[in-house]
Amino acid sequence: MSLYRIKVMNAIAPEGLALFGDRFAVSVGEPDPQGIVVRSSEVRTADFPSLLGVARAGAGVNNITVTEATTQGICVFNTPGANANAVAELVFIMLGICARNIHQGMDFCLGLAGYDEAAIKERVEERKNQFRGFELAGKTLGVLGLGKIGIRVANAGVRHGMRVIGFDPFPSLENIHQLSPEVRLTRSLTELLSNSEILSLHVPLGPKTKGLVNGELIDRLSKGALLVNYARGPVVDNAAVLAALADGKLGWYITDFPSADLVGHPQVICTPHLGASTEESEEQCSSMAVRELKDYLEYGTVSRSVNFPTAESIPAANVHTRLIVINRDIPDMIGFVSHAIGTEGINIISYLNESNGSVGYNIIDLEQGMGGAVLERIRTHPGVIRTRTITYI
Length: 393
Prior knowledge:
13 helices; Alpha-Beta Plaits; elongated; alpha/beta; Rossmann fold
């Protein structure tokens, strides 16, 4: 049996890659992969003619040509929640650093090197008041985006004694059920902004969110508000932020996305894209991505895909061949596929059909193998995007 070819892009935790097992040939230099595991590198799916699936070890997929992948019948996976704790922890670490002027105080202490004990004590007493900050307790935290990370940030705010307001235009019921009852939900973005002394961003990057935080939005915040961006860099218009810092509309900007116009600004605190950079997060993201891609290649099952519907079904012991049919979500596809198989005298053991409104995904388990003619008949139907077969016996 030939091995599935996997291309690894970026540094992926080896604990996750080990889950592929001996049926997979995994390498960085694979030129014609059937599967790709990626973190931040750009993936143009059209560059890989044999590609079946891409697994992103992380939540955002703006580095992958998802629309193009869908038209090619390539499944794109992500790992929502795997890095949520790491990002939420860092948000509050950075809030504490900013609120208490820790970064400035540490820089001051570094400058004391070379002084004797008496001089250090004297300078500390002289200067310590300039680093006096504020407590998070009692402040109002606005959370824009209530996904896996936003929920954790909101709940952490409650634990810190903050008043927390959350807004998400399309909230997930599963996520909302995990939200502390002390978090006030609002359906009004204006209400969120006007009440937020600290605004933390947790939205994906897409056409509707690129440049979302612009001058008009910042003007609706409380004067002197603290803005936190551990979502995606382009969600924020940097020029608008710098203008707001200059006129006092914003007090601070904390971001995980340094750029030439931000680094060195006295009211901007940058971290070098550390949001998910923990051993635990990287291992969880890697393991989840590998399991998703492995199951898709071996069984055709779909879990946590951003462009295909969820379809989970492990083949029974008597399944000879599993046929996967990916089609545009149009009427009578089930009837067409079933009839095409039936006319060849092939017995269907089970048929699973799922749809997400644009893509139909079919898993058909067969008692025997399929001839090339019937497969070609299905493949060439104008509604079919892609087919493949997986043989078990």
